[in-house]
Structure to design on (499 residues):
């Protein structure tokens, strides 16, 4: 290769030497610019619905089979003490995707439309912010809240301005799938509606499907996403993939039920008098359908069936994750892709004498959170520091080299990603309605209800939260320490009739 110094020694004319010097300087300039401004990393953003800590690497249930999620955790950082900001889909996802707490927005339940909230006006959601920063934003499945169990059919709260492309469409996040949707397969009850309204089937149902994975809604979503992973992109790409299972109803192909033989199912640990020491409001707040579900399960003798169906649906969701990771690895861009996997909230399967979510106990709040950032995360790293999914927004922006909007209330997890043992003076806040909050530290959970009644659990020695220690005077300092993370302002609910 000829350099400028070559030209000096071969007797070329002065003008030629000048031209050569100019060309060399331009080349050096371009080379330096390219080295200092590499292409930003892609982002693979995987959201799983209703997945609690029944994941192999979290040890929530001894029969959980999630080899793909476990393998993903081995690639980077596993947060073993991660918690949702909200106890149902809409408040959790709104918080994660806007960076604002439910107490700030007033989105406390699944009925409120975050797009009409004044506190969110003019504030970019996570995917919209990445799009504004030059990313191609592609989405599929349930990212923002969406479901199909309403009288009018489909219901969705997507950010219509966030996406370059969305499957099946920006206004309909969930594809049609096989299965007896809206028609109970196992005789589970329909619950009474409001006065003057018909009873409603809330999807508390399960059944094995005679179908291929690709025919299921999640199969369609993942197929669309894998096709995009296989294509080149002229700009950095933010690909969000929403996996619906293990959301109810638990309709998945037969082979996933077969992975969990009914005769071998282990029921979750329970205590008969578990709820005797909790405040009265804890019996009333939200999740009344879940209490009725548990009564029906006991009367029908179908507890093991329900646990089997949830485990089967979790294994199906894990298979979908495996397809995504395989497609990413085949694309050759895994080393240039940030991966984050999370679930919007957990799920009860008989613990605390209820099913579903909508509680401030560990089974609802504790969720998987895995982050892989090439060149930043160390394979197989983990931390038990308490973190919130509210922290996902600022973590992704920092890892991608994108400015974090000023409105974001979460805390970047990059210090923990770099050093899992780093000093961490933070706690995870979960909301379950107006002035209903729980704070999770590294050892204790402190809950303060709307009537100021309290719960306190030593989750280290009492992982099932069977013994409420709120009345123990020796633990007053623990309550005081954790209570400083409670929000100072609680916005009125945007749907007050739902509280």
């Amino acid at each position: 290769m000829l350099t400028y110094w070559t030209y000096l020694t071969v007797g070329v004319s002065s003008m030629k030497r000048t031209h050569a010097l100019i060309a060399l300087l331009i080349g050096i300039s371009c080379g330096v610019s390219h080295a200092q401004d590499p292409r930003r990393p892609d982002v693979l953003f995987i959201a799983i619905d209703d997945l609690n800590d029944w994941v192999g690497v979290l040890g929530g249930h001894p029969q959980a089979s999630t080899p793909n999620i476990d393998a993903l955790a081995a690639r980077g950082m596993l947060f073993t003490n991660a918690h949702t900001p909200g106890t149902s889909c809409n408040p959790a996802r709104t918080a994660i995707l806007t960076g604002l707490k439910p107490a700030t927005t007033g989105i406390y339940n699944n009925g409120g439309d975050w797009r009409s909230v004044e506190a969110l006006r003019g504030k970019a959601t996570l995917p919209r912010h990445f799009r504004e920063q030059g990313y191609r934003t592609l989405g599929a499945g349930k990212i923002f809240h969406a479901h199909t169990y309403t009288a009018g059919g489909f219901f969705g709260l997507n950010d219509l301005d966030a996406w370059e492309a969305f499957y099946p469409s920006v206004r309909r996040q969930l594809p049609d799938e096989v299965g007896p949707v809206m028609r109970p397969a196992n005789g589970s009850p329909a619950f009474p509606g409001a006065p003057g309204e018909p009873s409603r089937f809330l999807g508390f149902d399960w059944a094995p499907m005679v179908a291929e994975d690709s025919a299921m809604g999640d199969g369609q979503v993942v197929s669309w996403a894998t096709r995009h992973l296989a294509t080149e992109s002229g700009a950095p790409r933010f690909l969000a993939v929403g996996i619906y299972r293990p959301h109810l109803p638990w309709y998945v192909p037969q082979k996933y039920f077969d992975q969990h033989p009914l005769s071998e199912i282990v029921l979750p640990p329970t205590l008969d008098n578990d709820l005797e020491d909790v405040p009265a409001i804890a019996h009333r707040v939200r999740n009344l359908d879940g209490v009725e579900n548990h009564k029906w399960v006991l009367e029908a003798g179908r507890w093991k069936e329900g646990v089997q169906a949830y485990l089967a649906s979790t294994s199906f969701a894990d298979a979908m994750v495996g397809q995504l990771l395989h497609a990413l690895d085949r694309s050759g861009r895994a080393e240039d892709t940030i991966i984050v996997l999370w679930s919007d909230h957990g799920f009860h399967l008989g613990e605390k004498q209820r099913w579903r979510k909508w509680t401030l106990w560990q089974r609802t709040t504790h969720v998987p959170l895995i982050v892989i950032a090439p060149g930043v995360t160390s394979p197989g790293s983990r931390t038990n520091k308490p973190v919130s999914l509210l922290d996902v927004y600022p973590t992704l922006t920092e890892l991608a080299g994108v400015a974090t909007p000023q409105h974001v209330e979460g805390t970047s997890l990059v210090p923990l990603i770099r050093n899992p043992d780093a000093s961490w003076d933070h706690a995870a806040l979960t909301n379950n309605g107006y002035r209903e909050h729980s704070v999770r530290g590294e050892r204790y959970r402190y809950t303060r209800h709307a009537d100021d009644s309290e719960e306190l659990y030593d989750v280290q020695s009492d992982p099932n939260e069977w013994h409420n220690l709120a009345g123990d005077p020796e633990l007053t300092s623990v309550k005081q320490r954790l209570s400083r993370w409670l929000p100072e302002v609680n916005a009125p609910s945007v749907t007050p009739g739902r509280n």
